[in-house]
Amino acid sequence: MSLLFKELDSRSTPIGVLSLRRRRELALGVDVFEIKLGEDYLMSSLFTASEIALARLGLAALPGAPLDVVVGGLGLGYTAQAVLDDQRVASLIVVEMLEAVIDWHRTGLLPLGPGLTSDPRCRFTQGDFFARANAPTGFDPATPGRQFDAILLDIDHSPEALLDARSTGFYRPQGLRALAAHLKPGGIFGLWSNDEPDAAFTERLTGVFEAAWAEPVTFHNPLQDRPFTQTIYLARVAA
Questions:
Q1: What contacts 112, CB < 8 A, 6 or more positions away?
Q2: In what helix (H) or strand (E) does residue 217 lie, and over which residues does it extend?
């Protein structure tokens, strides 16, 4: 195995073969961590601006403290770390379906893992985010029915480009209403999307929440040497 590339782990999962690899990007002089599902790239440590923005924009929309937060999808950990960077955050539950991803953080295979696992405010829980969103018991197995100030989601590529068919109903009005029930009055739902803003989805959010809006996040793609735009959707329940 070349020193410029190493597959750190590979496992079969209910949605396909998941692999973690590290490679050296010579043009930029950095090590890049990537997670792939089969032949599809799920995430890369080269592109984290919008994952961080999901946390910062979502929490910036909330006044006061302390804050209780849920993150759906652990990934490389950038959204969770950005949540913990906000000193108003009292607790963070990260819901991750894939055991391998949690293991990569707990064993230190991923750079942000040690910081996340050592923060007493942060707790990983393995499970199906979408099933928990649809259930009255909600996201905290230790406290059924618990509500949160913010629920931030980064799992599917977009509301129309899903990793698995089980999440289809979540993005429809009934699924969004079930999610909203887990938010405190005035709470925020934040959603990452790989696509540019979709007015139709923003309108769908507006039909469920008191207010909804889309925040484009544009960053430079160093591999293609051009700007790239992704989207953070935000929605607030009535106070």
A1: 76, 77, 78, 80, 81, 105
A2: strand 211-221
Q: Please list, in sequence order, all residues whose beta carbon lies within 8 angstroms of the beta carbon of residue 81, skipping any fewer than 6 positions away.
A: 52, 112, 115, 116
What does DSSP assign to residue 196? P
Q: How many CA atoms lie within 13 A of 41 on its CB side?
A: 11
In sequence order, the β-bridge partners of residue 23 are 5, 32
Euclidean distance between the first and the last CA atom of the chain, given in angstroms as a whole number = 56
Task: Name the residue with tokens 């302390």.
Answer: 66
Range list of H helices, 159-218: 173-180, 199-206
The DSSP element (H or E) to which 172 belongs, if any, is none
Angle between helices 173-180 and 199-206 (to 10 degrees): 50
Map out the domains of the chain as residue ranges.
Answer: 47-236
CA distances from 207 to 46, 66, 159, 176, 200 (A): 35, 29, 16, 10, 11
47-236 — its CATH code?
A: 3.40.50.150
Q: Report CA Rg, the chain.
A: 17
Residue with tokens 């410029």: 4
pLDDT digit string, tens, across residues 149-192: 999 999 999 999 988 888 889 999 999 999 999 999 999 999 99
CB 106 within 8 A of CB 113: yes
* pLDDT tens-digit series, residues 126-153: 999 999 999 999 999 999 999 999 999 9
